Recover the amino acids of this structure.
């Protein structure tokens, strides 16, 4: 699957579907996206290939204190993916930047700060804060997570 920024200066390809995709309703995502939530697909950095252009990193504070890097197009400033908590092996892909954004969320998180006019789809997994990955993620996604995560 391929994607890119609004102006076309940065193009990328993903070699695999994200391990898990979530709509984050936290106040930080609302503020930084300018919308009611951010839709992030967790994917290994090694599965993202930049085809053209070069995203710039914008450093942001985070509630955890570990920091947050947003990779943006240097021209139009579209957010393409993030690195939350300084994990070099993992990216949070903004799935709406895919040419065919057919990846749907697996869960909604931080719904305690969900805007009151946002209605979640019937039957969608939703969590006030976060969830237990071992219970919510499919086994193949957990295997990818453990294979990619550094052991140190």
């Amino acid at each position: 699957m391929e994607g890119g920024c609004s102006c076309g200066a940065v193009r990328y390809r993903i070699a695999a579907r994200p391990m898990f995709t979530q709509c984050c309703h936290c106040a930080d995502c609302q503020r930084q996206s300018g919308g009611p939530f951010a839709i992030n697909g967790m994917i290994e950095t090694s599965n993202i290939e930049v085809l053209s252009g070069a995203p710039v990193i914008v450093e942001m504070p985070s509630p955890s204190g570990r920091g947050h890097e947003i990779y943006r197009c240097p021209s139009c400033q579209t957010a393409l993916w993030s690195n939350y908590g300084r994990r070099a092996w993992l990216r949070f892909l903004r799935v709406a930047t895919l040419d065919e954004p057919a990846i749907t969320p697996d869960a909604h998180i931080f719904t305690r700060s969900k805007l009151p006019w946002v209605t979640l789809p019937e039957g969608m997994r939703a969590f006030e804060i976060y969830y237990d990955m071992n219970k919510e993620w499919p086994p193949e996604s957990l295997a990818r997570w453990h294979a990619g995560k550094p052991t140190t």
